[in-house]
Structures are given as C-alpha cells and as structure tokens.
Amino acid sequence: MEKIIPNLQFSVLCDDVVQDRASGKFVFYGLFDNIKCSKLPAVHPRLYIVNRWCNGFGEFKQRTRIINPAKEKLIEDREVEVRLKDTKSKHTVISQFTNIAFKEQGFYWAEIYLDDKLLLSYPFNVDKIK
C-alpha cells in the first residue's frame, strides 16, 4: 500500500496532560492561548503541545516548534516518528517544552510539521501585565 498523508485531528497547547490508565483517555489541564507575566523576559516553566494524527498510512516524521514575534525560531522539538499501520490507526505525539524564556511580548506561534512540511500554525500571546 502506498503512503497516505494523515490528518492532524487536533493540536492542543496546555500546561499539562495525563493519560488515564484505565480508559486510555487524555486529560488536558490549563488549555491556553495567552501567557500573562509581570516582567520580561518571562520563563514559562512547562508547556505541552499535543498532536493527534489519524486517517493516514505509513511512517512520518513530526516536528513541533515555537516561533517568536519576529518569526524567528525560538525553540524546536526533536523529530518524532509517527507510524500508522492502517487508515483506522491514530498516533498521539506529546511534546513537552520546559523553561522557555519569552523575551518580548506579542504573538508567538506554534508550528506543526510533518515530513518537513508545515501543516498547522497557530498563535498564542505573551502579554506583560502592568
């Protein structure tokens, strides 16, 4: 069978994620699109980007990165292999980022790549409160 590019079922930006042992369900804590801080640079202790792939077939490489307001790479996750044995399979990738230093306020971007192709980009705001 020929490779079938999967769909990105969801991408979630959150403070924490756990998987229930009994049900296998993922539980997301602190979904956000805004980080408020009292001073800059601000170090965010931990954030997760969780991506679910489905409706594809084959082996792929996923990368997740965070881009600063100047559209320069801030941080990049390692490549993760995504394997889908058939079109009914699902693959969930959990990327953890720790101690990210946000140097300026403004819109940052989460970018999701599959085999070096940008498939999704979405903003989140870092806002200095007065």
Question: What's the architecture in CATH terms?
Answer: Sandwich
The CATH topology is what? Immunoglobulin-like
* Beta-strand residue percentage: over 45%
Number of domains: 1
Principal-axis shape = globular
CATH level 4 superfamily: Macroglobulin (MG2) domain
**Which secondary-structure class do the elements indicate?**
mainly beta
Question: Could you give the order of the helices and strands?
Answer: EEEEEEEEEEE
Identify the CATH class: Mainly Beta
| Percent range of helical residues | under 10%
Q: What's the rounded overall pLDDT mean?
A: 95
| Helix segment tally | 0
Q: How would you characterize the largest beta sheet? A: 6 strands, mixed
> Termini, distance in Å?
58 Å
Poorly predicted parts: none
Q: How many runs of DSSP E, i.e. beta strands?
A: 11
- The radius of gyration is 16 Å
